[in-house]
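Predict both folds.
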Amino acid sequence: MAEDKDQMKMTKAEIIEHIYETSRISRKDIHSVIDSFFEEVKDALTKDRVVELRGFGTFEIRTRKGREKARNPKTGEIVPVKTHGVTVFRPGKELKKMAWNLRH
């Protein structure tokens, strides 16, 4: 099962290769643009800004409420968890529709 998941995973290197094969842009330039894009998204999120990519989805930071009696899944030990931020992604309408029809 883990092998199946690994085969379905797409890496940044594979994305760069696919873009390279369909464009006249160098791998180095593609890599630079993708890295810059990710840095811009991370920078916006760390400034508590919402990143909306129309037709794809939205990234944002949400506050997850802390709890006094959370459980460590490995040990079963009860541990406190502070209120903290979590990154969430909400797919856009087009992506949601595509995903809905993927697996029957």
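Second protein follows, with its predicted structure tokens after the sequence.
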Amino acid sequence: MNAVVSKDGTKIAYEKKGSGKPVILVDGALTYRSFGPMPGLAGLLAPYFTVYTYDRRGRGESSNTKPYAVEREVEDIEALIQEAGGGAFVYGISSGACLALEAAIKLDDKIKKLALYEPPYITEKAAQQDWKEYTKQIVELLKANRRGDAVVRFMQFVRTPTEQIEGMRQSPMWSIFEAVAPTLVYDAAVMGEDRMAPVKRVANIKIPAMVMDGGANLMDRSFMHQSATALAKAMPHAQQRTLEGQTHDVNLEVLAPVLVEFFSKH
């Protein structure tokens, strides 16, 4: 394990593997460097790039300076980019894609290319009330130190089947979820108070970008497809890719070649 120190003094733990141009992988909710999809993805990308996986602040072996602000998480990515030589490709998934997008807005040409998979913005204002109720409930549960209940509420919000939630509660992984539960508030902040796709702000992103979504069950998850379309249209040098047959839990064997192709193009 290596570590960089972010601008506010927070220690950010990271690992790197492979060789070539640097790629930084940004996790979504409840996952981190050693728990979730990123270690597997790093292994698939390492033959082509130097791949950085890291623990977002408040997770794993990273520290957690308060008060939280999205800008501090952007500074964490900036510290990693500096460690990687001053420039890097960045890939983010889910709320991590929203964070990667915020980093691209603020860090100018330090991010050389940007790839996103299903940033879960909404496009309909009618869904905003549900979002505001969810974020309020998460904050209240965590203030009461009801971490397990906060994880359940998150899983319910993202439509995880009840029997699957119950199964996870009985498994060893539940303690891992509870440990990082306070960062659910951070993920909510990254997605914004209204959770709308920031189409006006991304218009200033001049780097090559790719916004991906999964093609499976498209009718049930059309808001992610719509958000991907809106973001790709708003960025001057962006493309949209729909990965056929894929859900939000994307198959890494399908995803990795798409990233290799995109990051390798001149």
